[in-house]
């Protein structure tokens, strides 16, 4: 490999000190326009770029943000990750994506992230165990942690999340106004240290309308196949007259899988036989094949706030934001 040009070589070519070269590549540093011009011209000739890892030793900041994800089967993760990486890069940070699942120990993953000298950790999944996140091995030097798009149940770890109470009130009000009276709720992956609370609020608001029983369906994870299996098990075990008349799914991916199964295997009409509503406003759900009623999270604003917390521009505290009900023909 060809050796990289060094700051010392650029300094000699530009006739300045090594520290002047460093200041030329440091935003906001004190340096004359003439000195900066000479440094940048010499750097271009030598194809020099600053070593960010070496600079981090002095600044105590690497610009790297670890993002922990476990449920990669959920395609709704992609819009969030796209927005997150886009906004991080816009402020000079980069994301380090770390796969957290049953094959990887959470404590070791956190230690690995810390050894990489990341500036912060974003928890973006379902199975972050409180007892391991607070393990004594981590000590006080662990980077600050934040939860994105779920409620945090970990002391000292703030979250930025869509307001589930407001969202489910809007959804239940809409369904009730359309005449549905036999609701069901399909939940996804069980959460350990982060939660959605959508099932809790769904049952609460139906109860306020005098309907105390909400049929509970479980999909175990967030995927099309899991949604299909969840509704298949329910419909196979429940006769037509006893079935729910509306199914709320914890996210759109479960809803799409359930809709395919209801139409393909059971020849049911949507919404005439069973109405369906999801959550997230996943792009495919808006197609004419599904026309899924859903709830859209304020994705860009949520990501923006968590980045401002990481940068220290706002206090690190849990923030809930309102979203928007999107009504389509599935209800």
Automatic annotation (TrEMBL):
PROSITE patterns cross-referenced by the UniProt entry: HTH_LACI_2
Domain HTH lacI-type intervals: 5-59
Signal sequence bounds: none
Transmembrane segments: none
Presence of the UniProt keyword Transcription in the record: yes
SUPFAM superfamilies named in the record: lambda repressor-like DNA-binding domains, Periplasmic binding protein-like I
A Pfam family hit: Peripla_BP_3
UniProt-listed SMART domains: HTH_LACI
GO molecular function list: DNA-binding transcription factor activity; transcription cis-regulatory region binding
Organism: Rhizobium jaguaris
Name this protein carries in UniProt: LacI family transcriptional regulator
InterPro entries recorded: HTH_LacI (IPR000843), LacI/GalR-like_sensor (IPR046335), Lambda_DNA-bd_dom_sf (IPR010982), Peripla_BP_I (IPR028082)
Keywords: DNA-binding, Plasmid, Transcription, Transcription regulation
Superkingdom of origin organism: Bacteria
